[in-house]
Amino acid sequence: MTSKIINMAEKLKDAEDRLLESMFAAEPIANDGFSQRIVTRIRRRIWVRRLALPAAMLVGGLVAFKPAMQLVTVSSTLLGVMPREFLEIPASVLPQVESATFGMPLIPTIVLSAMVVVAGILGTRLLNE
Amino acid sequence: MACDGAWAIIQVATPLDAEDQSLVTLAVASQDTAAYGELIRRHQSQVRNFLRKLAGGSTEDADDLAQECFLHAWDKLQTYSGRGSFIGWLLKVAYTTFLQSKRKSKRYSEVLNEVGYVAEQQSRSYTQDADEVSDLDKLLAVLTEEERAIMVMSYACGLSHREIGDATGLPVGTVKSIIFRGKEKIRTNFDIKDHKHG
């Protein structure tokens, strides 16, 4: 609840105070679209802020896509060098996977990467909000 | 003042303040720009008048500052606690915006001076343009920037000493002594009984 504090001592104004008040008094300034101009600027800023993060992520994603794919390919190759039994997912943990290896084919890797990116975007947006 | 020792502080919630508060709540909670537009419409005249008197430059410059002030206020709206009037809080933002712009233009002039460029006077000084200055301009010219801001807040905007203290970050006692000093200066320099409206 808004409150206004009035000092009673201030209320006891002398003639000089009243004279100063009349000298400082000014005609009210007409709005003439002033408030509308500011509201328009604010609405534009809100849109820019909303779009800035997804746009930056899109640009970043596009720039990083090729190096990221190269990194995934190199990682897959390196994983193939590791002992097979170390890479196998135990059937007890994931029974539906018989003997999946980390040396994934390219398409599932892309799908997985895309899912990670989308999850990242959604997570960041959630944090932003 | 005669009754300095007998302060009676009364809290009064005016209907206008309550409406302002609900508009602020609406604007903050749902980013309602229409509610904020209504707040601007209500207070633009006081803020623009304050900045015109304070800056002393062209009305266009003061109005640009007022726009900046309302944009800053939008960004900081959630920091308005509802303690004190909304116009008091807005004038605080306006005063800060004015000081920031002053610092920026000072730094800009310093850079120009360093490279040997003589800049044109960007804002009209109160001591110049004698043809156009009103009595109020002459009166404000004898005051320092701080005194001018506080006198305008007090006599043009009708803020209480406490609200001025909140707006400027000064203790109430300092506000009172600045007003007293300002009045002394005006008394010394002018016969304020014979004046034209500014």
Helix content of chain A: 55-70%
Beta-strand proportion of chain A: under 5%
Distance between the termini of chain B: 26 Å
SSE pattern of chain B? EHHHHHHHH
Oligomer: heterodimer
pLDDT averaged residue by residue of chain A: 74
Concise overview:
The complex is a heterodimer of chains A (129) and B (198). With 129 residues, chain A is mainly α. Chain A has helices spanning 8-11, 15-24, 34-81, 84-87, 106-128; one strand at 4-7.
Structure write-up:
The complex is a heterodimer of chains A (129) and B (198). Chain A has 129 residues and is mainly alpha-helical. Chain A has a domain at 52-129. Chain A is 69% helix and 3% strand. Chain A has five helices and one strand, in the order E-H-H-H-H-H. Chain A has helices at residues 8-11, 15-24, 34-81, 84-87, 106-128, and one strand spanning 4-7. The longest helix of chain A has 48 residues, at 34-81. Chain A is rod-shaped, with a radius of gyration of 33 Å. Chain B has 198 residues and is mostly helical. Chain B has a single domain, classed as Butyryl-CoA Dehydrogenase, subunit A, domain 3. Chain B contains eight helices and one strand, in the order βαααααααα. Chain B has helices at residues 15-30, 33-55, 59-76, 86-114, 135-141, 145-156, 161-168, 172-189; one strand spanning 9-12. Chain B is globular, with a radius of gyration of 18 Å. Chain B starts with 8 loop residues before the first strand and ends in a 9-residue tail after the last helix. Residues 1-12, 121-130 and 194-198 of chain B have low confidence and may be disordered. At the A-B interface, strand 1, helix 1, helix 2 and helix 3 of A face strand 1, helix 1, helix 2, helix 3 and helix 5 of B.
